[in-house]
Amino acid sequence: MRTAAGVALSIWIVVAYAQNPKSCGRPRIQPVLEDEDRVLGGTEAVPGSWPWHAGIYTNQIYPAHICSGVLISKRHVLTAVHCLTRKTAKMIRVHLGAHLLNRDDTGEMSYEVEEICQHRNYKPPHTNDLIVITLKEEVNFTDTISPVCLPKSMEEAPPKSSAFVTGWGRFEPNSDTLSPHLKQARTKTMSHETCNGEEYDARVPQSILCA
Q1: Of 21, 53, 72, 177, which is the most buried if we count CB atoms within 10 A?
Q2: 8 A C-beta contact, residue 156 and residue 179
Q3: What does the pLDDT look like over 101-133, one tens digit per residue?
């Protein structure tokens, strides 16, 4: 049994615009996409249709969900630094192939963590907010577990590129209740000029994707 007490909204954005090799970013179980643009609300994902989605949990008998990430290789998961504040490698585990938040799924795998390495230019709260988790053992890729593709160095998503958000989101803005099932949403990227304009009143640095 897994618990999700005190957990913030967990999302991870995957941008589908790069020319990617066949070995990554191609789910064997196809997602069914609708026009919802936020995980708050969102729609339930088809189990196994986002095989790179990773759940990060406390490493204890009754694990609590901390955040989400994406599988990028047989031993590496990418997530956000702010998710793992005051956490060490021994304090967390990574769950792959999960659809249900509070109990284990068929085909779900859990991995101990060897080390975590945050971006050297991270600046709170969100500048270069990236951290790589190295797993203690290699992941066996399956129908429900496989890696996402990463863009090339310095490659940027042009405005209005399709982006997909997955996570166990809240049902309501002021609620702590998370969805028991993995949820998904489709959105579009936007330029930083638009994102930081008066309409949105945001202060988003260039290192953050705006959608």
Answers
A1: 53
A2: no
A3: 988 888 999 999 999 999 999 999 888 999 999
Residue 123 included in any domain: yes
Say how far apart CA 56 and CA 193 lie, in whole Å.
33
Domain that holds residue 42: 12-21+29-195
Q: What percentage of the chain exceeds 70 in pLDDT?
A: 83
The string of pLDDT tens digits covering residues 13-28 is: 455 443 344 578 999 9
3-state helix, strand and coil shares in percent for the chain, rounded to the nearest 5: 5, 30, 65
Q: Of 29, 52, 32, 53, which Cα lies nearest the Cα of 182?
A: 53
Report the helix count and the strand count for the chain, using DSSP H and E. 1, 10
Report yes or no on 38 lying in a domain. Answer: yes
Q: What angle do CA 139, 66, 86 make, to 5 degrees?
A: 100
pLDDT in tens, 79-107: 999 999 999 999 999 999 999 998 888 89
Contact in structure between 97 and 145 (CB atoms under 8 Å): yes
CATH assignment at residue 173: 2.40.10.10
Give the amino acid at 55: G
Residue 101 is assigned to a structural domain of this protein: yes
Task: Quote the pTM value.
Answer: 0.85
Number of domains in the chain: 1
Distance CA 22, CA 159 (A): 25
Q: Give a yes or no: residue 209 inside a domain.
A: no
**166/34 Cα distance (integer angstroms):** 13
User: Is the pLDDT score of 136 beyond 50?
Assistant: yes
